[in-house]
Amino acid sequence: MSFTRKLLAWYKRNARVLPWRKTRNPYAVLVSEFMLQQTQVSRVLEFYPRFLKRFPTFGSLARSQPKAVMEAWDGLGYYARARNLHRLAREVTRLHDGTLPDKPEDLRTLPGVGRYTAGAVACFAYEKPVATVDTNVRRVLERAFGSKDVWELAERLVPKKGERAWRFNQALMELGALVCTARKPKCPECPVRSDCRAVRSGIQIRNRQPGHPR
Ligand code: SF4
């Protein structure tokens, strides 16, 4: 069985139920991606529903005062994200008729959106078959394939069909979050261990510092 098929079979059985995985609403997906930069899932789960309830659309966020946005973000930290999200909502409303672009190259022109977030939103909201590499994905690909250019590898691996690409990217992230963790990866229970270069060659697995690319 191929790496992708093993990964997807594992994901089907083990994926956590997370609210941003149940939606394809571009605004809701974007908010989750901004919150997940630098912040643990458990913490985001506390803030995410409240924030969406208070600001349910790009328009409602764009019309809000900066103070109100900061209040809703208070406790999540890294406040530049909230300022960028607010600016982004205003730009989307003013320049794009309230519709978030769906191409990574257009998404990257927006405030606070880097290569990772552009790929994540294009794939998770619009099911575009594009790669996205966060810290978890980078760690899995470096260990499993011994790859230095993980973006190039992720672009080669990502399935060409959008819905499968969505599951593939979610699954890579989930494997990095639950099994191929920075410290003490759970290799004996890993679905791709028979393909894993780090395991095959007995390479000592080095820790990566936590962090999240934009
Ligand atoms: S076998 Fe271990 S190192 Fe390799 S991908 Fe799985 S958890 Fe990571």
Task: Compute the separation of the termini in Å.
Answer: 33 Å
CATH homologous superfamily grouping of the largest domain: Hypothetical protein, domain 2
- Tell me which ligands are bound: iron/sulfur cluster
Shape: elongated
- Count helical runs: 12
How does the helix and strand content classify structurally? mainly alpha
Question: Largest sheet at a glance?
Answer: none
SSE run: HHHHHHHHHHHH
Radius of gyration: 18 Å
Considering DSSP H and I runs of 4 or more, what fraction of the residues is helical? 55-70%
Q: In CATH's first tier, which class of the largest domain applies?
A: Mainly Alpha
Overview of the structural elements:
The chain has 214 residues and is mainly alpha-helical. Helix content is 57%, strand content 0%. It has helices at residues 3-14, 26-36, 41-54, 58-63, 66-73, 80-95, 104-107, 115-126, 135-145, 150-157, 162-178, 197-200. The longest helix is centred in the C-terminal third of the chain and has 17 residues, at 162-178. The radius of gyration is 18 Å and the shape is elongated. It binds iron/sulfur cluster. Iron/sulfur cluster binds at residues 140, 143-144, 179-180, 185, 187, 190, 192-193, 196, 198-199, 205.
Summarize the structure.
This protein has 214 residues and is mainly α.
Summarize the SSE layout with pairings.
Elements: H1 3-14, H2 26-36, H3 41-54, H4 58-63, H5 66-73, H6 80-95, H7 104-107, H8 115-126, H9 135-145, H10 150-157, H11 162-178, H12 197-200
Helix pairs in contact: 1-11, 2-3, 2-8, 8-11, 9-11
The structure holds iron/sulfur cluster.
Iron/sulfur cluster binds at residues 140, 143-144, 179-180, 185, 187, 190, 192-193, 196, 198-199, 205.
